Automatic annotation (TrEMBL):
Any matching Pfam family: DUF1761
Keyword Membrane part of the UniProt annotation: yes
Protein name (record): Uncharacterized protein DUF1761
Chain ranges passing through the membrane: 6-25, 54-74, 80-98, 110-133
Presence of the UniProt keyword Transmembrane helix in the record: yes
Lineage summary: Bacteria, Pseudomonadati, Bacteroidota, Bacteroidia, Marinilabiliales
Keywords carried by this UniProt record: Membrane, Transmembrane, Transmembrane helix
Species of origin: Mangrovibacterium marinum
Length: 134
């Protein structure tokens, strides 16, 4: 099954998470609320625990692994519609529910959970669309 994976589609799907993330967490969408809910300021973001190359590099590796697993799940016979459907189902019913459980036990703010879960749903639908259509 691994030999049938379109690695360009996996790469582009992984990159798409950065496009979605840059929009989702921008000041125009949810970036200001995300910062407020986390207690972040512009200065605290600049003084992050990890350097930005580590954050972005690790995030890309994680997105690459997720896209690869999604490609394995979708298989070679997938199409745009099934890719989007599978991406939605995975994000909404596996990832978001897992986030919710963790958030409940950690007493996190539900608005923050919804921001992150919304990003996951959109990202996985886009990744599924790319992999399924390609």
């Amino acid at each position: 099954m691994v030999e049938q994976i379109n690695y360009w589609a996996v790469f582009v799907a992984a990159m798409s998470t950065f496009v979605v993330g840059s929009l989702w967490y921008s000041p125009v969408m949810f970036g200001k609320k995300w910062m407020q809910l986390n207690g972040f300021s512009e200065d605290s973001i600049k003084q992050a625990r990890y350097p930005m190359p580590v954050i972005f590099g690790s995030s890309f590796v994680a997105a690459l692994l997720a896209a690869f697993a999604l490609a394995l799940f979708l298989g070679s016979e997938s199409d745009l519609t099934f890719g989007m459907f599978a991406g939605f189902m995975i994000a909404a019913f596996w990832i978001a529910t897992s986030r919710l459980t963790t958030a409940l036990f950690e007493q996190q703010k539900m608005a923050l959970v919804l921001i992150h879960a919304g990003y996951d749903v959109v990202s996985y639908v886009v990744m599924g669309a790319i992999i399924g259509a390609w």
